[in-house]
Amino acid sequence: MSTDLLSTLSQTLLMGPGPSCVPDPVYSALSHPTIGHLDPRFIGIMDEIKGRLQTVMQTRNPLTLPISGTGSSGMETCFVNLIEADDPVLILKNGVFGMRMADLAQRLGADVDELEFEWGTPVIPDAVKEKLARKSYKIIAVVHAETSTGVMNPVAEISRLLADTESLYLVDCVTSLGGMPVDTDGWHADAVYSGTQKCLSCPPGLAPVSFSDRAISLLKARKTKVPNWYLDLTMIINYWDGDTRAYHHTAPINMLYGLYAALGALLDEGLDQVYARHKAAHDALVDGLNHLGLSMAVSEESRLPMLNAVNIPNGVDDAGVRTALLKEYDIEIGAGLGALAGKIWRIGLMGHTARQENVDRLLSALKTLL
User: Among the four residues 41, 46, 123, 369, which has the most C-beta atoms within 10 Å?
Assistant: First the structure.
């Protein structure tokens, strides 16, 4: 018999840009017996997941549910349901995931404008205001927590610029949800998406989304069919809502068990306590890195607590350090992407990973390696 590769896996400390460490109760939930996706017991779990997501996403939107797919499927769900050909769309871009938004909108035939900002710096609201004064857009899209750079964008300030417009506000919260406040209703966000594998501490495979009533009205008024059958919310909502559930696709049942448990753990700890834990772990990491002579790539006021961009010192072998951390210490950190490749390390403090003992373990290993 061939070697069982699963037996070679270890409890790696995941401190990269995702996935994050998964706590034992979530693993336990995943192992529960698989039942039918229309079983009344499973419908009850689905309803509870919706309610828990509404609490974590700070929204009353009835259309709040996890899409069957990773975070990128959440992004695609928002765009394919809201965009039709030639729709004017503005993408506020300062990293890889803003680039992906623009790419997807272009593939759908939208009239896409991109307002780009230097990587490692946030979107500047005054520049957005000037852009909006010159043209009206159906959708304004921005990444709340840009995973490629460690930058927090001012989504609340951008929201205020849209208050007197007809534009829909679309926000990527893949990295932020569960690690810092995501105020969907307070931001007047019309479409928000995330992923389970970051601060929710659940394996990758689901993408929470939330649509406002305004976004649903636009969806129902489409002139053309949603171009992606699998992600068509006009059909998916009939599976997730109402007294009679209509089959659309076979849901990833055990993954939803995991999300149910992960959201439960988050709410049991308390959202304010969870956010404080992420901030405390971030502060401890920054302080420890400073003592090692390492600097942060993002200015303090714009840093994310859960994704830390660290400048790689001159003469230090980027890949060599990351490889040694994994092979010798069983710790994973991330490399820079795009324009920041080879210039930064991306150190994740997401969800269950965001704990003092994990920060100490990484700092000790880096001290030895450097």
Answer: 123
